[in-house]
Design goal:
The chain is of the alpha/beta class. The protein has 21 helices and 29 strands. The chain folds into 4 domains: about 5-110, Rossmann fold (3-Layer(aba) Sandwich); about 215-380, Histidine kinase-like ATPase, C-terminal domain (Heat Shock Protein 90, 2-Layer Sandwich); about 400-565, 3-Layer(aba) Sandwich (Rossmann fold); about 565-680, Response regulator (Rossmann fold), CATH 3.40.50.2300.
């Protein structure tokens, strides 16, 4: 409360004015500045000229009373605590003025008592509390409006990005565009950069609104780190850098963490290290450190070191703040919104850890962070041998095979990466995200007389792991060849997997040459295609004894494959009001061999479902006449077997999807590989 309180006294009796003013003037602290008026019109004029902290209002003012004055003050939008002064005590009057908005009611005989001062103080304190509440409400409403705006902005930006990235991918795939491949690559790279900036902005918004939640689960540390290496190794190689992961001491086999968010932190730090390093190496170190947690539990530490440009010491405290960037970095034109490290700090904090950096300008930087890995006291520990594999000079393979391959991995990026390598050899690719889905896909394929010729099975997956999935397949008399994919860091693991019944073992990161050996062994090599094969590398072992005899199906089996291609055509309705995005998805689906039609509104979609036979619907959430989730049940009434996949520029609500029995959703921009994975699974 201020040391000087500005009081407006509305009083038509001069004696009462002097009495009140004399008492207030004797107060040493706080001091009072009194303005005296005699009626409501003078009061309004005073309010226009001056700001007051409190108003003392006589109940009877000639032809007016306090209720009339309160009404005038309220009608003018004046927000000030008003204490009513009266010469007599009347309970009914007390109730009336309080209902009219007065802060308190006081008898004039109490002006020279301590109660008068307390009444004034309490009235102003209550008004301050109310003002703070109103301000908090305004801030909350502004934050809600900001969140709504950012969600809308995200949706609006993702839709055109779909067209930019999608059409660029199509142009890059066209051999006739080799002449402008560099320009197309620049468009594609910058489009993906814009998407990453958008994702960072939305992540930061969710963090600041305290809406970002973690989903911890058991994580196999060896497989997790190998997947991170697989995802980032190509980026490092493109700059001629060596990317390695080292583990100087045994670490727990399994930790408890949110793998998506932990991967996001590591990839962000590794990406920055690669970005700011022109030559040399990027090293990731993993170890266990004692006593850093709140309960003095052991913590898991990660260090990402580079030999890049480094940072000045006086700038190190700023880089974890949102929108902060080092000036020298900006001059080097590395770009970015300055959100990545701020997001990393918040995510690490949510994982009960901290992040720090040490750097020498011109020599490189080391980012260190630790997380709480759950209770690892009883976990077996092992050394991770995940350093970057040596570069081998092996001849390029020109393998052309026919057959169906099921790729099973819980990480979508790695499913797509492996699928891309397999599809380059012209084999058909299907996907499953865990052992249960793999079992279901393999058994359905057998029942339809179109079995898979090869299953590439990750070992560490949620729901059902690779070993249990293999046992389930064999229990159902499915004899399809199954090759295990694993980090294979423990001594004897490969042999134990072969003993479990796997037909072979591929190590992670998957080497292209090793994968080609597997494909050539279990699929049908097309005639007339020159193929140069090198001996199987050390990270592949096979129990199959025949190299060619008995592994190449006869021509009747080739006919089955042709039928499989024909029967795998999906009939898809794209429900999207943005014509560019809709036409792009139709084009991508058509190029993948599917039949696709477009509806640009809910009414048009229902009309097409009445007259057409569709298996799947790609449904945008924001249509001109319907919200997607309101339209979904109407579509199901027309076509009960229709699979609805939500396509949206913002993350759809999981509970709403579940209520509408919708299991799949795509976030814009939708890429060619997104659709390939979606309709191959």
């Amino acid at each position: 409360m201020s040391d000087l309180i500005r009081v407006l006294l509305i009083e038509d009796d001069e004696d009462d004015y002097f009495l009140t003013a004399d008492y207030l003037s004797q107060c040493e602290e706080p001091r009072f500045d009194i303005t005296w008026v005699t009626n409501s019109s003078e009061a309004v004029a005073a309010f226009r000229c001056k700001i007051f902290d409190i108003c003392l209002l006589d109940y009877i003012l000639g032809s007016e009373n306090a209720l009339d004055v309160l009404s005038v003050i309220k009608s003018k939008g004046i927000n000030i605590p008003v204490v009513i002064l009266t010469g007599q005590t009347d309970t009914k009057v007390d109730e009336m003025v309080m209902r009219a908005g007065a802060a308190d009611y006081l008898n004039k005989s109490e002006i020279e008592t301590p109660r008068f001062m307390r009444t004034m103080r309490y009235a102003m304190v209550r008004r301050e509390i109310e003002n703070e509440r109103v301000e908090r409400h305004k801030v909350e409403q502004q934050n809600k409006a900001k969140d709504k705006f950012l969600a809308h902005l995200g949706h609006e930006l993702r839709t055109p990005l779909t067209s930019i990235l999608g059409y660029t991918e199509l142009l890059l795939d066209d051999a006739g565009n080799e002449r402008i491949d560099p320009e197309l690559s620049i468009i594609h790279t910058n489009g993906k950069h814009l998407l990453s900036l958008l994702n960072d902005l939305l992540d930061m918004s969710r963090i600041m609104a305290n809406k970002l939640e973690l989903s911890p689960k058991d994580v196999d540390l060896a497989g997790f780190m190998t997947d991170v290496h697989s995802l980032m190794n190509l980026t490092a190689k493109d700059k001629g850098l060596q990317l390695s992961i080292d583990c100087p001491e045994p670490v727990p086999e399994v930790i408890r963490a949110d793998p998506t968010r932990l991967r996001q932190v590591l990839i962000n730090l590794i990406s920055n290290a690669v970005k700011f390093t022109d030559s040399g190496k990027v090293e990731i170190l993993v170890d266990v450190v004692p006593g850093l947690g709140k309960n003095k539990d052991e913590m898991l530490r990660f260090q990402v070191s580079d030999s890049g440009v480094g940072m000045p010491p006086d700038k190190l405290d700023d880089i974890f703040h949102p929108f902060e960037q080092i000036e020298d970095v900006m001059r080097a034109n590395h770009g970015g919104a300055g959100l990545g490290l701020a997001i990393c700090r918040e995510l690490v904090s949510k994982m009960q850890g901290e992040i720090s950096v040490s750097s020498t300008f011109g020599k490189g930087s080391t980012f260190s962070f630790y997380i709480h890995p759950g209770d690892i006291s009883k976990q077996p520990r092992e050394l991770l041998n995940l350093s970057s594999p040596a570069i081998r000079n092996t001849p390029e393979m020109n393998l052309h095979v026919s057959g169906r391959v099921l790729i099973v991995d819980d990480l979508r990026e790695l499913r797509r990466l492996t699928g891309h390598l397999v599809s380059q050899c012209h084999a058909q690719v299907a996907y499953a995200e865990n052992g249960v889905k793999a079992l279901e896909a393999a058994l359905i394929a057998e029942q339809e007389g179109q079995p898979f010729h090869l299953v590439l099975m990750d070992i560490h997956m949620p729901v059902m792991n690779g070993i249990d999935a293999l046992k389930a397949l064999r229990k159902h008399n499915c004899q399809t060849a199954v090759v295990a994919i694993t980090a294979a860091s423990r001594k004897g693991l490969r042999q134990s997997l072969l003993d479990e019944g796997f037909d072979g073992v591929l190590g992670k990161p998957i080497e292209k040459n090793a994968l080609m050996e597997v494909l050539d062994q279990y699929l049908i090599r097309s005639s007339g295609v020159e193929t140069s094969l090198t001996p199987a590398p050390p990270n592949f072992q096979s129990t199959s004894k025949s190299e060619s005899e008995g592994l190449k199906p006869s021509s009747p089996h080739e006919t089955v494959i042709e039928n499989t291609v024909k029967d795998s055509v999906k009939r898809i309705l794209v429900i999207e009001d943005d014509s560019d995005a809709a036409e792009l998805m139709q084009l991508l689906l058509t190029h993948q061999g599917h039949s696709a039609d477009i509806a640009q509104s809910g009414e048009e979609a229902m009309e097409k479902l009445e007259h057409g036979d569709f298996q799947h619907a790609l449904l945008d959430l924001t249509l001109p006449d319907y919200h997607g989730l309101e339209l979904a049940p109407k579509l199901r009434e027309l076509c009960p077997e229709l699979e609805i996949i939500i396509v949206s520029g913002r993350e759809p609500n999981a509970e709403q999807l579940s209520e509408n029995n919708i299991e799949k959703a795509l976030l814009k921009p939708v890429s060619k590989s997104d659709l390939l994975a979606l309709f191959s699974e």
